[in-house]
Design goal:
This protein is α/β, with parallel strands linked by helices. Helices cover about 35% and strands about 25% of the residues. The strands form 5 sheets. The protein has a 7-stranded mixed beta sheet with strand order 1-2-7-8-9-10-11. A 6-stranded mixed beta sheet has the order 12-13-14-15-16-17, with no helix packed on it. It binds MU-OXO-diiron. The site of MU-OXO-diiron (FEO) has 9 residues, from helix 2.
Length: about 400
C-alpha cells in the first residue's frame, strides 16, 4: 500500500516482515526490514530506488496501480546493491529508453549486475535535475555504502534521500521515526552502523560535514531501509557524527568460546574482578558460539575494551572466536583496547594467537594475556579476579 510522505513524495517500497538474515547469512535482521522506494510527482514523475529482486514482480504491479508506466519520466538509482536495484530489470522492461540517473560508478555496477544497456545518465555532486517546480540535487556518497552510493535532495520539500545512510533493518507498518518503538529503533540504528558503516567512519564524518556546508534546509530524511526521519531528522545525523568519532561507552565486553567450561569460568571470574574494581562500568559476557554475531559486534562497537578468550585446540583457537576476530579486523574499530585469556592443557598457543589477531584488528593490547592450565582451582580463580581488577585499573 502506498504511503504519503509529503505533497510530492509517496513511499512505494516493500516491507519485508519475514527477513531474518541479510547479505546472505551475514547480518541478522531480528525485526525484518524494508526496501524503500519513492515516487516523486511534480510536472515530471520520478522513481527513486526500487526493491530487492524477489519482490520485483509485486513491486512493479503495485507501483503501476499508483502510477501507470507511461507517466513515469525517469528513474533514479542511488545505489546498485540488489536490495535497492533488484526490481530495476522488471521496471525498465516497462520503461524502455527512459533515463536511469545514477553515479558513474553505478553505471558500472548496474551493468555488472544486470548486463543491460539502459539509458544511463551519470550524475555527480552538485548536478541538478528539474522535476518542474522542484529539483533533485545530487551528492555522491562513495562507500556509504558502496563506491556507487549517492544521496539526492529534493528542493521545495526539503527532503534528503540518503539511501543506506541513516537507515536500519526494521519492518514497521508506519515507517516514520515518530511511529515506532524508540528503543527498537535505536537498537537497530546502532547495530546497522556498527556492522556496516564502522569501517567508513572517516567518510561518514566528511560527508555529513560536506552536506551541512551546503546549508540546505532539512525537513525529512528518506532512507532506503526502515523509517523515514520526519521528527527532528537531525537527531540521526548528530548520532552518526558521534558514532563516527571513535565511539565508545563505559563498557567492557568479554567474548569467548569454551570446550569444558574452563575458559568460561575464567571469563566469569575476570568479569567479577572488573566489576569489583570498576563498579560503574558495564561488563558483558558472551559465548560467541552461542551469540548472534551481529549483536556481539554491536556490543564491541559500544565498548571501550574487549577481552577475547579461547582454549587452545590443535595449537590454535576455537573457530567461533576466530570468526568474530575476522569480523573485527574487517570493521577496523578505532580507539579500543583489548586483552586475551584462555585455558590450555599442554601446548597453550591460543592466548598469543588471540593477542596477535586483536592487534592486527587495530586494538591496543593492555598488558599480558592470562593463561591457566586445565580447570582453574581456587588460586586460579583468584588470579582471574586479580587480572580483572588490574585490568579495570589500566582501563579507567
Ligand atoms: Fe541497502 Fe548497500 O544496500
Amino acid at each position: 500500500m502506498p504511503i504519503k510522505v509529503s505533497d510530492s513524495v509517496t513511499w512505494v517500497g516493500k516491507i519485508d516482515w519475514e527477513l531474518r538474515s541479510f547479505h546472505g547469512e551475514e547480518y541478522s535482521t531480528h525485526r525484518g526490514t524494508s526496501y524503500n522506494s519513492y515516487l516523486v510527482r511534480d510536472r515530471k514523475t520520478a522513481i527513486i530506488d526500487t526493491v530487492w529482486t524477489p519482490f520485483a514482480g509485486e513491486y512493479v504491479k503495485r507501483l503501476f496501480d499508483v502510477v501507470p508506466p507511461e507517466q513515469i519520466d525517469f528513474v533514479v538509482a542511488l545505489h546498485a546493491e540488489p536490495d535497492h536495484s533488484g526490481a530495476l530489470p522488471e521496471l525498465m522492461r516497462h520503461l524502455p529508453g527512459k533515463p536511469v540517473y545514477c553515479s558513474a560508478n553505478a553505471v558500472k555496477s548496474l551493468r555488472g549486475h544486470y548486463h543491460q544497456d539502459w539509458n544511463f545518465q551519470p550524475m555527480g555532486t552538485g548536478d541538478r535535475l528539474s522535476l518542474g517546480d522542484r529539483e533533485l540535487i545530487f551528492v555522491e556518497a562513495p562507500m556509504l555504502h558502496w563506491p556507487d552510493s549517492m544521496f539526492c535532495y529534493l528542493s521545495g520539500e526539503e527532503i534528503l534521500f540518503s539511501n543506506d545512510a541513516f537507515g536500519q533493518h526494521l519492518a514497521a507498518e508506519h515507517p516514520f521515526n515518530d511511529r515506532v518503538d524508540p528503543c527498537e529503533l535505536q537498537a537497530e540504528c546502532i547495530k546497522y552502523y556498527a556492522n556496516i558503516l564502522t569501517p567508513f567512519s572517516p567518510l561518514v564524518k566528511k560527508k555529513i560535514e560536506e552536506f551541512v556546508s551546503l546549508k540546505l534546509p532539512l525537513k525529512m530524511i528518506c532512507t532506503s531501509h526502515g523509517v523515514i526521519w520526519r521528527d527532528n531528522p537531525l537527531q540521526i545525523v548528530e548520532q552518526y557524527l558521534a558514532w563516527a568519532e571513535n565511539y565508545q561507552e563505559d563498557q567492557i565486553t568479554l567474548f569467548y568460546d569454551t570446550m569444558w567450561n574452563a575458559t568460561r569460568i575464567m571469563a566469569e571470574a575476570i568479569a567479577d574482578g572488573l566489576r569489583e574494581a570498576a563498579p560503574a562500568t558495564t561488563v558483558k559476557l558472551f559465548n560467541c558460539a552461542r551469540s548472534d554475531k551481529n549483536d556481539l559486534i554491536t556490543e564491541i562497537f559500544r565498548s571501550k575494551a574487549v577481552l577475547a578468550g579461547s582454549p587452545t585446540i590443535n595449537q590454535g583457537i576455537l573457530s567461533a572466536v576466530a570468526g568474530i576476530l575476522e569480523e573485527m579486523r574487517g570493521l577496523r574499530f578505532r580507539n579500543k583496547r583489548a586483552a586475551a585469556f584462555g585455558s590450555f592443557g599442554w601446548s597453550g598457543e591460543a592466548v598469543k594467537m588471540l593477542q596477535d589477531r586483536l592487534a592486527e584488528g587495530g586494538f591496543e593490547l593492555v598488558g599480558e594475556g592470562l593463561r591457566l592450565s586445565w580447570q582453574p582451582d581456587r588460586d586460579g580463580l583468584e588470579s582471574c579476579r586479580e587480572y580483572g581488577r588490574q585490568l579495570a585499573g589500566r582501563l579507567a
